[in-house]
Each structure stands twice: as C-alpha cells, then as structure tokens.
Amino acid sequence: MALDEFALIGRYFRTAQLERATDASATALGIGDDAALLQLAAGQQLVVSTDSLLAGVHFPERYPPAELGYRALAVAVSDLAAMTATPLAFTLALSLPTVDEPWLQAFSLGLAAAARDFAINLIGGDTTRGPLNIGVTVLGQVPAGQALTRSGARGGDLLCVGGPLGDGAAGLAVVQGESLPAGLAIAGQDYLQQRFWRPQPQLLLGQQLRGVASAGLDISDGLLADAEHIAESSGVALHINAAQLPGSEALSAWAPRQKLDWMLRGGDDYVLLFTLPAREKARIAQWRAAGHAVSVIGSVHAGSGVLLDVGKGYAPIAGERGYQHFRSAND
C-alpha cells in the first residue's frame, strides 16, 4: 500500500536523527502541529533564509539521493554562515513525482548527516506530489546588531575569501562525467565530487567575523557575480587581483584559462567572501592558524562595480559574471 503524506513524514522525516540532530532546547514545538515554535536566547535576532533546488538547474538530472539530501541542507545553511549566525532549525518542503521509498530512505539519510554536521534540527515542512523540488528554510540566531550584511564595505578595506575557488564548477564537471584532464588523479576526482555534493558551510569562520568584517556573503553564483552584490549594496568598487585567487591542487589539473574561468564565474563554492578593515589584517593569520584558509584577493575603493586585474591592470568585467536566475537563451 502506498504511503500517504503523514505516513511518509513519520517514516522518513520524523526521526531522532533529524528532529534531534543537536540540542533541541530552542525548539518549543516541532513537527506535528500547524506550525513550529522556537525560543530564542535573550539578546538574539532571528535569521531566516530559504533555498529551492530544481533538478537540471541546481543539480544534475542523475544524482545519488543521499548526496542530494546532504547538498540541499548544506547550501541553505551556508546563508546562515554568511550572516554570522548560529543554526537553530530548518523546514523542508518536498515535492515528489512519485513515492519512491528507497529514494526517500537515501535522501533522508543524507539530510540527517548534514543536520548532524551543521547542528540543526528539522522542525516542520510539507510534502506534495509534483515535479521534484526541494525547498529548505533555515533559521538561526545572531547577537542583536551583529549580523553581517552586504552593505558595510568601505574604501580601504581588504577583500577576502574564506577558501579555494572553482572547486564547485570542477566538481560538477566530474559529477556529469565530462572529459577530464589526464593529470587529475582519482583522489582529486573524489575531492571535487565531495566539494560539489557536500559543501561545508563556513559557520565557525562566519561567527568569528562578527563585529570585525564590514560586509560579506557566501559565494554561490560565482565570485564576480557575488562580488557585484557587495559592491552595489555598499556603494563601492571592488578590485580583484586574479593572481591572488586561491585554488585547490585538484583544480590545477585543468588548463589555466579554464581554471581561472571557474574561479571567477563557476559558482557553487559556498565559501565566504567578505571585506575587512585594514586595521584588522592581523586576524587573517590567526584564522589561518585555526584552519580557515582565508586569503586576501583584492581591495575596496571609491567608485562602483567590480574591476579585475588579470595582469594588465584593473578593468571592468567583460562578459558573463556568473550564474543568473531567469536568464533566457537569447540574453
């Protein structure tokens, strides 16, 4: 007998691994009622973000369900890291074309692994029949007035990134079975697949940016596209030096032109991009010593937009900046 909605939720999502992935003291009321209740700690503000994932748009048409479950939550939690928040809870809105129990089992196990890794509990959601669509809303908390936004960058600040760039796009190439460079070892392929399916939100680094960084976000659509958001919101110009962009050993297997294009425009890296007042520069060595691969990749100036130096001086960006929703084939 096919499962109805409530039996599906009970079997695969109302589990200890998801409802109590971490301390649940902030959950006053979880799954089972019309809505959930959260109790914030004193002096905290609520941080809320929603992501939708569509097959063929945000992940390949062919995929491992467990990896998809992990990725769905990871990319949403990355927005909490960008706001310097501590995760509290999440909801899941899942549209399924059919009730496929092996798929649901694997998906929920991947989702639970991410919930454990990021210390966040499932508190509700919805399921319905339709084309595969995964909607995740994450909730976190941050000390009042300390959330990091896109609008605080000032001239003289350093432009920093929290880790290697280009791995997400290279990982997608591996996942999709594209022709790979001969120099890419099996270990490199495994690393890149992990970077695509299991990105690690920089929660701890984000929390250390509270009251220190001036602006920030996570890189999802590509370095250039996301840097443009900071420049526009802050009313400044960002100068990026291509020679300073950090890349992984695995990415170096590709030709320099492809490597640079993925680092600039590839997206799906889910590392933090932030601006740092020059007086705070000494913190970079401290963060690196603590295991956060922070690099300075440029600087903030008066003006507007993003300028890139690829060895010929700083110039406005030509062509695509990164992924954009709702772009038509004729754009």
Which short descriptors sum up this protein?
331 residues, alpha+beta, 60s Ribosomal Protein L30, Chain: A, Phosphoribosyl-aminoimidazole Synthetase, Chain A, domain 2, 2 domains, seven-stranded mixed β-sheet, four-stranded mixed β-sheet, 10 helices, 32% helix, globular, disordered C terminus
From the coordinates shown, what is the CATH architecture of the largest domain? Alpha-Beta Complex
Radius of gyration: 20 Å
Low-pLDDT stretches are: 324-331
Class by alpha and beta content? alpha+beta
Q: How many DSSP-defined strands? A: 13
Written account of the structure:
The chain has 331 residues and is an alpha+beta fold. It folds into two domains: 6-143, 2-Layer Sandwich (60s Ribosomal Protein L30, Chain: A); 158-316, Phosphoribosyl-aminoimidazole Synthetase, Chain A, domain 2, CATH 3.90.650.10. The chain has helices at residues 5-12, 16-19, 65-82, 101-118, 167-175, 186-197, 203-208, 223-234, 256-266, 282-289; strands at residues 27-29, 37-38, 44-54, 86-96, 121-129, 133-143, 158-161, 215-218, 237-241, 272-276, 295-301, 305-309, 314-316. Helix 5 (167-175) crosses helix 6. The longest helix has 18 residues, at 65-82.
Write the SSE topology.
Blueprint: H1 5-12, H2 16-19, E1 27-29, E2 37-38, E3 44-54, H3 65-82, E4 86-96, H4 101-118, E5 121-129, E6 133-143, E7 158-161, H5 167-175, H6 186-197, H7 203-208, E8 215-218, H8 223-234, E9 237-241, H9 256-266, E10 272-276, H10 282-289, E11 295-301, E12 305-309, E13 314-316
Parallel strand pairs: 4-5, 9-12
Antiparallel strand pairs: 1-2, 3-6, 4-6, 7-10, 7-11, 8-10, 9-11, 12-13
